[in-house]
Amino acid sequence: MNNTSTFESYLVKNNIYDEMFDSNNEIRGHYKKIIEYLSSESVENLNKKEDLAKSLFMRQGITFTVYNSGEGIEKIFPFDMIPRIITENEWQYIEKGIKQRLKALNLFLKDVYTNQFILKDEIVPTEIVYSCPHFTREMHDVNVPYDIYVHIAGIDLIRDNDGTFYVLEDNLRTPSGVSYMLENREITKRLFPDILPLCKVRSVTGYPSILHKNLMSLSPRAIANPTVVLLSPGVYNSAYFEHTTLARLMGVELVEGRDLVVHNHNVYMKTTNGLQQIDVIYRRVDDEFIDPLTFNPNSILGIAGLMSAYRKGNVAIVNAIGNGVADDKAIYAYVPDMIKYYLNEEPILKNVPTFQLSNPDEREYVFANMNKLVIKKTNESGGYGMLMGFSATEKEIEEYKLEILKDTRQFIAQPTINLSSAPCYMHGKLQPRRIDLRPFALVGPNGIEIVPGGLTRVALREGSLVVNSSQGGGSKDTWVLASS
């Protein structure tokens, strides 16, 4: 190695699965080519590549928004240039597990909004479903095209210290992050143009075309060119960069609620040539704001009367309204039971063990062991509302207990998972940082397709387990290697 100083400080810690080094402190086979390449580069050249990546992100406006005290602060999304690498065998396992999970979750959503067999058979407690703030009674007996509720999913995976993959969350409402996956790959092509084909890295660039194909197939009108739009809350939304990127790549109109109108149970877009009928809405507006006549009457983000057009079958909405009941963290605990119930199969991907704080016995155990657990609100995202017991003070724990007792249904607890680590380029040296993975699955009439890759999020702070961008995390390109 010409550049040994870059690697000297890389210390593999005990009880943490390292993606690059095995238990014998040897570089895993699938990392060898990229490490050989990096070793041949001087620190000066690597620093120049890092600076280039930052300037490319800045010039292209690849940002996210952090909300603090009611103010939106736009930031460049931190990017680490060392890829996270997944072997073909590992990917096949992940892909198979996600497909199984999504089949069961789609069946659960159809069931819970129609016959509710899973509740009658007491597989999932009725009170857990009915107390979920995202259980949408207005969706009862709505005819959803092809019975597909989850068209787009971002399933969060983590790896424990023994290398086992666990599902941490099912994001089934308006999952975000795919634009960062796509942009990370484009930046990597600029930084390492030769190494990608050499390592036989599978492409992720097909995502927009697959999504567009699926959206077109949902049109209620049998016409050659259905009109598809992407509905955004607007420029102040934290994921607005993603909305603009996906609309551009798919070649569809980016609209806001004020651009659409409902007339005679049909949805139209206002254009300079008059009203144009809309067939499919890929919405990035949350349920409660989508239609002020049905949900929040003060919403200015949605379209008045949209639910009437949806019930009539005159417009398709992606993802379906009411999906939040399936990714509620309290209901997450029952997904393995759903897989067994609907598919008569054993779950491929494991859940993280989960304690329901509405259960008195489980709550008693959690209260006695909070310094070993992670406590989460069942309907928060972005890393907000969590208590990391191992780093909390006694005062923080006692205050959190009082918060739990106000509404025990809204909290779950899980053991602290030692997230796997991967090499990151930090201040001229490779250092391990904790990571997770969000693969993106697209569900259409012809089945489930998962782009080979995903968004690998990184806890850039040393020792941190929180990978969310809103909590100081970043991301890196995810390479899935093709079989030789």
Give the helices and strands, then pairings:
Layout: H1 5-8, H2 32-39, H3 43-60, E1 63-68, E2 71-76, E3 79-86, H4 88-112, H5 117-120, H6 126-130, E4 152-159, E5 165-171, H7 178-191, H8 195-198, H9 207-217, E6 228-231, H10 240-250, E7 253-255, E8 260-263, E9 266-271, E10 274-277, E11 280-283, H11 287-290, H12 306-311, E12 316-318, H13 324-327, H14 329-332, H15 335-343, E13 350-351, E14 355-356, H16 360-368, E15 373-377, E16 387-388, H17 394-406, E17 411-415, E18 421-426, E19 429-438, E20 440-444, E21 447-450, E22 455-458, E23 474-480
Parallel strand pairs: 3-23, 5-13, 6-7, 6-11, 11-12
Antiparallel strand pairs: 1-2, 4-5, 4-20, 8-9, 9-10, 14-17, 15-16, 15-17, 18-19, 19-22, 20-21, 22-23
Helix pairs in contact: 3-7, 4-15
Walk me through the structure:
The protein is α+β, with helices and mostly antiparallel strands and about 475 residues long. The protein has a domain at about 355-415: Dna Ligase, domain 1 (2-Layer Sandwich), CATH 3.30.1490. About 30% of the residues lie in helices and about 25% in strands. The chain has 17 helices and 23 strands. The strands form six sheets. The chain has a five-stranded mixed β-sheet with strand order 3-23-22-19-18. It has a five-stranded mixed β-sheet with strand order 13-5-4-20-21, with helices on both faces. It is globular and about 70 Å long. The model has no long low-confidence stretch (mean pLDDT about 90).
